[in-house]
Amino acid sequence: MPEEGFEIRGAHEEEIEERAHHREPLSQKIALFSAVLATLGAIVSFLGGHTQNDALYYKNEAVLMKARASDSWAYYQAEDIKRHLADSVAKIAPASASAAAADSRKYAERARELRATAEELDRKSEEADAESRRALSPHTKLAIAMTFIQIAIALASISALTQRRWLLWGAGASAVLGVVLSVVAWI
User: Fold this and answer.
1) Taking the domains of the chain in order of start, what are their residue ranges?
2) Which residue windows are transmembrane per the record (predicted)?
């Protein structure tokens, strides 16, 4: 007997059709939620990388200023040694005392200028180092925020696979924590 005129439908097919006609599937909501989380994650990740780049820039500036200060201190010491030698020559050989005294004044003046330059470069190095620390301070909070956003994406994905709404609530809570930490990082 042919069964061409009859369609036998199971409960599963009826449930799928019922869900398709009467409400928006959970998976669509989760996909949209995940897309928003991915966008937020990209922004938080960019900001975290930006803080690292700024910190490295200022740290490099601090090292450069410290190297220049070190050079200035070395020149200062050399000029001071020359001044001491000129003073010693003036004491040992009174005949050349006036020339040695002139040299001593010249070396003392250069030493004062080099000392001022070295101190200024040391100050700039310390400022750049402090700026580096300030630029890096939000990084840890941003990294933790990104972790919470990634957890939220993972929970949302599991929620889509298992159709468990309570996992979506966990994803939402994790996302809120991530966003709050991101905002706190910049306050």
Assistant:
1) 27-185
2) 30-49, 142-160, 166-186
